[in-house]
Amino acid sequence: QLQLQESGPRQVKPSETLSLTCNVSGGSIGTKDTYWGWLRQSPGKGLEWFGSVHFSGSTFYNPSLTSRVTISITPSENRFSLNLKSVTAADTAIYFCARLPSWSGLSYFDSWGLGALVTVSS
Amino acid sequence: EIVVTQSPGTLSLSPGERATLSCRATHAINAKSVSWYQQKPGQAPRLLIFDASSRATGIPDRFSGSGSGTDFTLSISRLEPEDFAVYYCQQSGSSPITFGQGTRLEIK
Question: Is the Cβ–Cβ distance between B85 and B38 less than 8 Å?
Fold first, then answer.
Protein backbone atom coordinates (compact mmCIF):
# COMPACT_ATOMS: atom_id res chain seq x y z
CA GLN A 1 0.00 0.00 0.00
CA LEU A 2 1.39 3.35 -1.05
CA GLN A 3 2.34 5.67 1.81
CA LEU A 4 3.63 9.23 1.72
CA GLN A 5 5.23 10.94 4.68
CA GLU A 6 6.28 14.57 4.98
CA SER A 7 9.43 15.38 6.94
CA GLY A 8 11.34 18.54 7.74
CA PRO A 9 11.49 21.44 10.20
CA ARG A 10 8.14 22.43 11.68
CA GLN A 11 9.25 25.96 12.52
CA VAL A 12 10.93 28.38 10.11
CA LYS A 13 12.01 31.97 10.69
CA PRO A 14 10.66 34.80 8.52
CA SER A 15 12.70 35.45 5.35
CA GLU A 16 14.27 31.98 5.51
CA THR A 17 13.59 28.94 3.30
CA LEU A 18 11.03 26.28 4.16
CA SER A 19 12.25 22.83 3.14
CA LEU A 20 10.17 19.65 3.25
CA THR A 21 10.73 16.16 1.91
CA CYS A 22 8.13 13.55 1.02
CA ASN A 23 9.26 9.98 1.50
CA VAL A 24 7.33 7.49 -0.58
CA SER A 25 7.01 3.84 0.47
CA GLY A 26 5.02 0.90 -0.83
CA GLY A 27 5.57 1.91 -4.45
CA SER A 28 8.09 3.41 -6.84
CA ILE A 29 8.37 7.13 -7.42
CA GLY A 30 9.71 6.31 -10.87
CA THR A 31 6.41 5.35 -12.46
CA LYS A 32 5.94 6.80 -15.94
CA ASP A 33 2.27 7.73 -15.60
CA THR A 34 2.57 9.40 -12.21
CA TYR A 35 3.36 12.90 -11.02
CA TRP A 36 4.02 13.92 -7.41
CA GLY A 37 2.77 17.14 -5.90
CA TRP A 38 2.89 19.57 -3.01
CA LEU A 39 -0.06 21.44 -1.56
CA ARG A 40 -0.85 23.38 1.55
CA GLN A 41 -3.92 24.23 3.58
CA SER A 42 -4.47 27.28 5.72
CA PRO A 43 -7.60 28.88 7.18
CA GLY A 44 -7.11 31.99 5.06
CA LYS A 45 -6.30 30.46 1.67
CA GLY A 46 -7.88 27.01 1.80
CA LEU A 47 -6.21 24.30 -0.28
CA GLU A 48 -3.43 25.63 -2.52
CA TRP A 49 -1.38 23.70 -5.06
CA PHE A 50 2.35 24.47 -5.36
CA GLY A 51 3.32 22.25 -8.22
CA SER A 52 3.89 18.73 -9.52
CA VAL A 53 7.04 16.84 -10.50
CA HIS A 54 7.71 13.72 -12.59
CA PHE A 55 10.59 11.33 -11.97
CA SER A 56 12.04 12.52 -15.30
CA GLY A 57 12.38 15.99 -13.80
CA SER A 58 9.46 17.54 -15.67
CA THR A 59 7.78 20.09 -13.40
CA PHE A 60 4.61 22.18 -13.31
CA TYR A 61 4.35 25.13 -10.93
CA ASN A 62 1.53 27.34 -9.72
CA PRO A 63 2.22 30.63 -11.54
CA SER A 64 1.39 32.67 -8.43
CA LEU A 65 4.09 30.92 -6.40
CA THR A 66 6.69 29.99 -8.99
CA SER A 67 9.10 32.78 -8.08
CA ARG A 68 9.57 31.33 -4.59
CA VAL A 69 9.09 27.58 -5.14
CA THR A 70 11.38 24.78 -6.21
CA ILE A 71 10.21 21.17 -6.36
CA SER A 72 12.80 18.46 -6.94
CA ILE A 73 12.82 14.68 -7.07
CA THR A 74 15.36 11.99 -6.09
CA PRO A 75 14.21 8.72 -7.70
CA SER A 76 17.13 6.74 -6.25
CA GLU A 77 15.84 7.53 -2.75
CA ASN A 78 12.13 7.42 -3.60
CA ARG A 79 11.49 10.94 -2.39
CA PHE A 80 10.70 14.43 -3.60
CA SER A 81 11.11 17.81 -1.99
CA LEU A 82 9.69 21.32 -1.68
CA ASN A 83 11.68 24.50 -1.10
CA LEU A 84 9.78 27.72 -0.45
CA LYS A 85 12.00 30.75 -0.02
CA SER A 86 11.51 34.10 1.69
CA VAL A 87 8.72 32.86 3.94
CA THR A 88 6.42 35.12 5.95
CA ALA A 89 3.74 34.45 8.55
CA ALA A 90 1.30 33.99 5.65
CA ASP A 91 3.14 30.77 4.76
CA THR A 92 2.12 29.15 8.06
CA ALA A 93 0.01 26.18 7.00
CA ILE A 94 -0.34 22.41 6.88
CA TYR A 95 1.80 21.14 4.00
CA PHE A 96 0.80 17.98 2.15
CA CYS A 97 2.56 15.84 -0.42
CA ALA A 98 0.40 13.77 -2.75
CA ARG A 99 0.34 11.58 -5.84
CA LEU A 100 -1.20 12.49 -9.19
CA PRO A 101 -1.94 9.33 -11.21
CA SER A 102 -1.50 10.95 -14.59
CA TRP A 103 0.81 11.53 -17.53
CA SER A 104 0.03 15.20 -17.01
CA GLY A 105 1.18 17.32 -14.11
CA LEU A 106 -2.40 18.55 -13.85
CA SER A 107 -4.68 15.93 -12.36
CA TYR A 108 -6.41 14.81 -9.21
CA PHE A 109 -4.65 13.61 -6.06
CA ASP A 110 -5.37 10.00 -5.13
CA SER A 111 -2.96 9.44 -2.27
CA TRP A 112 -1.89 11.98 0.37
CA GLY A 113 0.61 12.26 3.18
CA LEU A 114 -0.64 12.95 6.68
CA GLY A 115 0.41 16.58 6.47
CA ALA A 116 2.99 18.67 8.30
CA LEU A 117 2.09 21.83 10.19
CA VAL A 118 4.80 24.38 9.52
CA THR A 119 4.83 27.61 11.48
CA VAL A 120 6.71 30.71 10.37
CA SER A 121 7.81 32.56 13.46
CA SER A 122 10.89 34.21 14.88
CA GLU B 1 -6.93 31.21 -13.13
CA ILE B 2 -10.18 29.27 -12.84
CA VAL B 3 -11.93 30.16 -9.59
CA VAL B 4 -14.09 27.42 -8.13
CA THR B 5 -17.00 28.35 -5.85
CA GLN B 6 -18.85 25.82 -3.75
CA SER B 7 -22.32 26.15 -2.31
CA PRO B 8 -23.74 26.09 0.21
CA GLY B 9 -21.01 26.93 2.69
CA THR B 10 -22.70 24.78 5.31
CA LEU B 11 -25.34 22.12 4.81
CA SER B 12 -27.31 20.81 7.81
CA LEU B 13 -28.99 17.45 7.24
CA SER B 14 -29.96 14.32 9.15
CA PRO B 15 -28.65 10.79 8.64
CA GLY B 16 -30.62 9.04 5.93
CA GLU B 17 -31.30 12.24 3.98
CA ARG B 18 -29.88 13.10 0.56
CA ALA B 19 -27.15 15.71 0.23
CA THR B 20 -26.51 17.77 -2.88
CA LEU B 21 -23.34 19.87 -3.02
CA SER B 22 -22.59 22.30 -5.83
CA CYS B 23 -19.39 23.47 -7.46
CA ARG B 24 -19.28 26.27 -10.02
CA ALA B 25 -16.27 27.37 -12.07
CA THR B 26 -15.61 30.76 -13.63
CA HIS B 27 -14.77 29.10 -16.95
CA ALA B 28 -15.96 25.90 -18.59
CA ILE B 29 -13.94 22.87 -17.54
CA ASN B 30 -13.42 19.54 -19.24
CA ALA B 31 -15.51 17.18 -17.11
CA LYS B 32 -12.54 14.85 -16.86
CA SER B 33 -10.81 17.58 -14.87
CA VAL B 34 -13.19 17.77 -11.89
CA SER B 35 -12.72 15.83 -8.67
CA TRP B 36 -14.22 15.80 -5.18
CA TYR B 37 -12.63 15.17 -1.78
CA GLN B 38 -13.84 14.53 1.75
CA GLN B 39 -11.87 15.85 4.70
CA LYS B 40 -12.35 15.09 8.38
CA PRO B 41 -10.68 17.01 11.22
CA GLY B 42 -6.98 16.29 11.55
CA GLN B 43 -6.88 14.24 8.35
CA ALA B 44 -5.74 14.78 4.81
CA PRO B 45 -8.38 15.11 2.10
CA ARG B 46 -9.58 11.79 0.69
CA LEU B 47 -10.38 11.40 -3.00
CA LEU B 48 -14.04 10.50 -3.58
CA ILE B 49 -14.76 11.28 -7.23
CA PHE B 50 -12.50 11.91 -10.24
CA ASP B 51 -13.30 12.74 -13.86
CA ALA B 52 -16.51 14.34 -12.52
CA SER B 53 -18.35 11.04 -12.06
CA SER B 54 -15.93 8.15 -11.40
CA ARG B 55 -15.76 6.85 -7.85
CA ALA B 56 -12.31 6.32 -6.37
CA THR B 57 -11.31 2.92 -5.03
CA GLY B 58 -13.30 1.89 -1.96
CA ILE B 59 -15.82 4.73 -2.15
CA PRO B 60 -19.42 3.59 -1.48
CA ASP B 61 -21.93 3.90 -4.30
CA ARG B 62 -24.06 6.33 -2.30
CA PHE B 63 -21.54 8.95 -3.51
CA SER B 64 -22.03 10.15 -7.06
CA GLY B 65 -20.79 13.03 -9.16
CA SER B 66 -22.21 14.74 -12.21
CA GLY B 67 -22.04 17.91 -14.22
CA SER B 68 -20.51 19.62 -17.22
CA GLY B 69 -19.31 23.00 -18.39
CA THR B 70 -19.14 25.22 -15.33
CA ASP B 71 -21.55 23.40 -12.98
CA PHE B 72 -20.79 20.20 -11.13
CA THR B 73 -22.55 18.33 -8.33
CA LEU B 74 -21.66 15.82 -5.65
CA SER B 75 -24.61 13.83 -4.34
CA ILE B 76 -24.76 11.57 -1.32
CA SER B 77 -27.91 9.48 -1.57
CA ARG B 78 -28.44 8.38 2.06
CA LEU B 79 -26.26 10.07 4.62
CA GLU B 80 -24.40 7.87 7.06
CA PRO B 81 -22.97 9.27 10.34
CA GLU B 82 -19.44 9.02 8.93
CA ASP B 83 -20.33 11.25 5.96
CA PHE B 84 -20.49 14.43 8.03
CA ALA B 85 -17.29 16.25 7.06
CA VAL B 86 -16.02 19.00 4.77
CA TYR B 87 -16.15 18.43 1.01
CA TYR B 88 -13.97 20.11 -1.62
CA CYS B 89 -14.15 20.19 -5.38
CA GLN B 90 -11.03 20.65 -7.50
CA GLN B 91 -10.38 21.52 -11.12
CA SER B 92 -7.28 20.44 -13.03
CA GLY B 93 -8.38 21.54 -16.48
CA SER B 94 -5.96 24.42 -16.57
CA SER B 95 -3.04 25.65 -14.51
CA PRO B 96 -3.06 26.37 -11.70
CA ILE B 97 -4.96 23.49 -10.13
CA THR B 98 -7.56 25.14 -7.89
CA PHE B 99 -9.93 24.04 -5.15
CA GLY B 100 -13.24 25.36 -3.92
CA GLN B 101 -13.47 26.76 -0.44
CA GLY B 102 -15.39 23.74 0.81
CA THR B 103 -18.88 22.78 1.97
CA ARG B 104 -19.27 21.74 5.59
CA LEU B 105 -21.84 18.96 5.93
CA GLU B 106 -23.10 18.94 9.50
CA ILE B 107 -25.61 16.90 11.44
CA LYS B 108 -28.93 18.66 11.87
Answer: yes
Q: Measured between beta carbons, which residues in chain A are less than 8 angstroms from residue B29?
A: none
pLDDT by residue (tens digit) across B74-86? Answer: 999 999 999 999 9
Of the candidates B73, B95, B55, the one whose C-alpha atom is nearest the C-alpha of residue B11 is B73
State pLDDT tens for residues A100-110: 998 888 999 99
- Give contacts of A63 with chain B, Cβ < 8 Å: 1, 95-96
Q: How far is CA B102 from the centre of its chain?
A: 8
Integer Cα distance of B97 and B75 in angstroms: 23
Contact B52, B63 (CB under 8 A): no
What residues of chain A have any CB closer than 8 angstroms to a CB in chain B? 46-49, 60, 62-64, 96, 98, 104, 106-110, 112-115
Q: Determine whether the interchain pair B88/A107 forms a contact, defined as Cβ–Cβ distance below 8 Å.
A: no
